[in-house]
Amino acid sequence: MVKAIVGANWGDEGKGKITDMMAEQADVVVRFQGGANAGHTIKNKYGKFALHTCPSGVFYENVTNIIGNGVALNVPVLMKEIEGLVEKGVPKPRLLISDRVQLVMPYHILFDECEEERLGGNSFGSTKSGIAPFYSDKYLKIGIQACELFDEPYLKDRLENICIQKNPVLTGLYHREPLNAEDLFRTCMEYKDMVEPYLADTSSFLWNALKEGKTVLLEGQLGTMKDTDQGIYPMVTSSSTLAGFGAVGAGVPPYEIKQIVAVSKAYSSSVGAGAFVSEILDPDRAEELRRRGGDGGEYGATTGRPRRVGWYDCVASRYGCRLQGATDVALTVIDVLGYLDEIPVCVGYEIDGKVTEDFPTPRLLERAKPVLETLPGWKCDISGIRKYEELPENCRNYIEFIEKHLGFPITMVSNGPSRDDIIYR
Ligand code: GDP
Questions:
Q1: Among 157, 169, 212, 264, fewest CB within 10 Å belongs to which?
Q2: Where does a domain end: 261, 280, 300?
């Protein structure tokens, strides 16, 4: 069976930790979308890691890790990541890369940088990893699939066409040097040597694994609010972050997805620009939560950028869980809130004088103001607790208050960064 682990919010909910934890009981872990633009932070017996491309099952020798066809694969970044794991004593991971995956090319990153520069203050806050230009090319049908690396004449033709398409914009709009098909071909051949040992027909591998009764985890990147269609467009990422897309981006039958764990952090955080209704606007209060947040503060795993932080947003999270099709909610990083006397929770949005509990379209979202309810804090350290009944009453009330507003069952509560910091309900 397939289980998906996805973000209910803006990303950075702690999916890496939950995946690493669930991978212990799994046979295969698959990344199905996104690229090296966001990271998953994992802390375990080998140390602390920020994974950008590797699936979070790489720490288990019995797990096959798959980079699915839906991923934006930056080959050198992946190679460096694997080297980094091995250097820190992790056994060389069992890894398969879909022969249909497409490659992030250096010009995707260049276009990303140029466009952010052109937009200046109005930019989308891109991590400049080439993700938007990559997915644009994929749907323009000028992307490069890994399997094309093995058909040199065909590839050369494609690269020449890419230069014809891209150079007028590159030179005319961005005033940069034009691309050269021969250079691109050389880069492709370097990538070919790097990926060749890992390439496989991964959808067929997964089909067989499922027939044999194996457990497959789909690991999402970012969260519902960053989904191209259902998120806060245009402040979104360029691939679908939804569990449903897992079927496409991994190549598994949709009916095999039996469990969908929507990971939701016990407070909110978001990187980059865009509406963020429950954001804490007082700079000192925000800085305190940012500093205490996550494991070592709320700073981007890929960029080191400080994340914007806010109170838990029931409106956005309920919408986030609904679009994911959550069967379970994992509420994470709740231990961090132990310092607060009282904890505001956003239970509604006020838009043009009217209060709603429904997540609005992006244009209306810009005008939304949070309706906050304040709950008492628990004022103690809850890390180390393993039984739900042993949590302080105010902490349980906080969890149950959120669960009631979500309408989805919180079956896991994470109270620390490590694998075993988990309370099952
Ligand atoms: P992801 O992209 O969804 O995996 O999230 P990130 O890796 O960006 O952020 C999660 C951060 O919180 C990481 O530093 C984790 O080690 C940490 N983390 C995960 N769960 C918990 C938790 O329950 N408590 C604390 N304190 N930190 C956690």
A1: 212
A2: 261
pLDDT at 301 exceeding the cut of 70: no
Ligand 1 centre and the CA of 145: distance in Å? Answer: 33
Cα–Cα–Cα angle for 34, 40, 43, rounded to 5 degrees: 160
Measured from CB, residues less than 6 Å from any atom of ligand 1 are 7, 11-17, 38, 40-41, 43, 294-295, 301, 332-333, 335-336, 414-417, 421
> Kind and range of the H or E element at 142?
none
183 classed as catalytic: no
Q: Which of 40, 52, 108, 405 is catalytic?
A: 40
Same domain, 298 and 417: yes
- 46 and 141 both lie in a single domain: no
Residue with CA at minimum distance from ligand 1 atom 20: 417
User: Which of residues 104 and 122 earns the better pLDDT score?
Assistant: 104
Residue with tokens 């679908």: 240
> Is 295 tagged catalytic?
no
Q: 122 falls in which pLDDT band (50, 70, 90)?
A: confident
Judgement on whether residues 95 and 117 belong to the same structural domain of the protein: no
For residues 205 and 83, state if they share a domain: yes
CB contact burial 36-48 (16+ within 10 A = b; e otherwise): bbbbbbbbbeeee
Domain enclosing residue 47, as ranges: 2-100+199-261
Q: How far is CA 380 from CA 73, 338, 383, 422, in A?
A: 43, 5, 9, 17
Q: Kindly state whether residues 183 and 310 are assigned to the same domain.
A: no
Task: Tell me which H or E stretch contains 365.
Answer: helix 362-365
pLDDT number for residue 37? 82
Q: How many domains does the chain have?
A: 3
Three-state DSSP at 48 gives strand
Q: Do 238 and 280 fall within a single domain?
A: no
Share of the chain above pLDDT 70, in %: 99
Q: Which atom of ligand 1 is nearest to the CA of 56?
A: 4
User: pLDDT for 359-373, tens place per residue?
Assistant: 999 999 999 999 999
